[in-house]
TrEMBL record:
This is Oidioi.mRNA.OKI2018_I69.chr2.g8114.t1.cds. It comes from Oikopleura dioica. Belongs to the peptidase C2 family. The keyword Protease applies. SMART domains: CysPc (SM00230).
Length: 497
């Protein structure tokens, strides 16, 4: 808050704001840029936002942060006006961009801007000055301003770099992390799209109403390799999944994808210039929003997308339930759908191997009860869960999370605990999430890990354990979240809470 007040005083007095905490001109360790400039000195026509934020404004420079920009592009993409997802996305991008202040002449005159990002369940203020990396030897180590002179993308990118300790710290990352930190939602990952075991087309058509979606191709070749117009090791926004009707009445499941670089598109079937589009009526193309433009957006058949991409990230927007229909929900209802418990991993619990046995041990894991109530008319329902750990994204940390169903009758201890208080896992049934599509006791790297479960109403046990690559003597705080209607969380064991 001190930085926010400092910026406000500078803007009110008409003086220039200098961010001494993140001075990219004086501290070259913060950025690869050789030259910097102040935006307020660059051009009188430069603005923060004139015509509203849009996915087409997002264009990547030479900084390797496509994972962040793909997430930003997804949240900035326009949705059908009047829907809940459109309203929540609009509220989310306004909260991040703080447009009420950043679009004023006071901000521009002071050369200072204010942003907010989500961390450990709270929205964190980030204030920056308008010093930005300049072009040097044909390279721009930052995002590129929009065609009409809007600079909101390079500025929010700088703020996000400060949020993570420097531009160099956002080179390479997980889109799931960025989606959570931009929206406050819960992001889940799925790899190996050809073996998820679910009908991705049907699932995405259902989830896209209430979610942000990105996709990546991770063949390990690096961004220098381009195959069929697709950049290797690159994150893209997935903007739409829809069924397209051809003129002969046949149907195809299609996906609309956008490259955050704002250029470079798929050149396979159904690319912008493909003659196949002659088989689609003008009315159908208008319905889908098909435009032939070199803006980084393109269409693919669902099957081709599954063949060419390896990773899918879905971020559930805060306050929404998968089964929601369009319509307004109150702020009170929205908050009631985000239930949390918080606790602390002691040092010893972060240094032991991640095994199924240790994950069941209440001295080495956190154990939490999830109560799932009825919602909708189906036997089971999709719900979102997330583990947040107060740990920098560049710190090597693994997590192991398991879910267990109880078959006990109402009134019994749902976890069959003897006097020792430890659940009897022999009488519990393991539940595998829909996403991420892994089974058994598999640890994997921490990245704001989210889960999508398909479960019946009842009580469930969540066991969470974590391990650092390097041993620690410090405790680490964590939060377990569940998002949806009629959900409750509470600790089963008290050791970590």
């Amino acid at each position: 808050m001190a930085q926010v007040e400092k910026l406000r005083k500078a803007s009110d007095s008409g003086s220039c704001f200098d961010d001494e905490d993140f001075d990219i001109e004086a501290n070259k360790e913060l950025t690869k840029a050789v030259k910097t400039f102040r935006l307020k000195d660059r051009s009188g026509s430069a603005s923060f936002i004139d015509e509203g934020s849009d996915a087409c404004d997002v264009k990547q420079g030479q900084l390797g942060d496509c994972w962040f920009l793909a997430a930003l592009s997804s949240i900035a993409a326009k949705d059908q006006s009047g829907t809940k997802v459109a309203k929540i996305k609009e509220d989310s991008i306004k909260r991040v961009l703080q447009t009420g202040f950043n679009t004023t002449m006071l901000a521009k005159g002071a050369g200072g801007y204010h942003f907010k990002f989500f961390r450990m369940g709270e929205w964190v203020d980030v204030v920056i000055d308008d010093k930005l990396p300049d072009r040097h030897e044909g390279k721009i180590n930052r995002a590129i301003e929009s065609k009409n002179g809007e600079w909101w993308v390079p500025l929010v990118e700088k703020a996000y770099a400060k949020f993570h300790g420097g531009y160099n710290n956002i080179v390479g990352g997980e889109t799931a992390v960025a989606l959570t930190e931009l929206s406050g939602g819960i992001a889940v990952d799925a790899n190996n799209l050809d073996s998820t075991g679910v009908n991705l087309g049907d699932l995405l058509k259902k989830l896209q109403r209430n979610s942000l979606i990105t996709t990546s191709n991770r063949d390990g070749a690096g961004n220098e390799k381009v195959t069929k117009g697709l950049v290797s090791g690159h994150a893209y926004s997935l903007l739409l999944v829809d069924t397209m009707t051809l003129s002969d009445g046949s149907k195809l499941d299609m996906v609309k994808i956008r490259n955050p670089q704002g250029r470079g598109e798929w050149d396979g079937a159904w690319n912008d210039d493909d003659t196949k589009w002659a088989d689609v009526s003008d009315d159908e193309k208008k319905r889908l929003g098909v435009v032939n433009s070199n803006d980084g957006s393109f269409w693919m058949e669902l099957e081709d997308w599954v063949d060419e991409f390896e990773n899918l990230t879905i971020c559930a927007l805060p306050g929404l339930d998968v089964n929601d229909e369009d319509g307004d929900i109150s702020e009170e209802e929205k908050n009631s759908r985000d239930v949390r418990v918080s606790g602390t991993f002691p040092p010893g619990a972060q240094n032991d191997p991640l095994s199924g046995g240790n994950n069941k041990n209440p001295d080495l894991s956190s154990q939490i009860e999830l109560s799932v109530g009825d919602y909708g008319q189906t036997d089971t329902r999709l719900i979102w869960l997330q583990i947040l750990i107060d740990s920098p994204v560049k710190v090597k940390r693994s997590v192991l999370v398991n879910f267990w169903a109880t078959t006990s009758k109402s009134g019994d201890d749902p976890f069959n605990r003897p006097q020792s208080g430890t659940p009897d896992f022999k009488k519990l049934q393991k539940v595998e999430p829909v996403f991420p599509n892994k089974s058994g006791h598999q640890p994997y790297p921490y990245s704001h890990n989210g889960y999508l479960l398909d479960v019946a109403p009842g009580k469930y046990l969540i066991t969470v354990s974590t391990k650092l690559k390097e041993p620690t003597t410090d405790p680490t705080n964590f939060i377990v979240r569940a998002m949806g209607s009629n959900l409750k969380l509470r600790p089963v064991t008290e050791a970590f809470f």
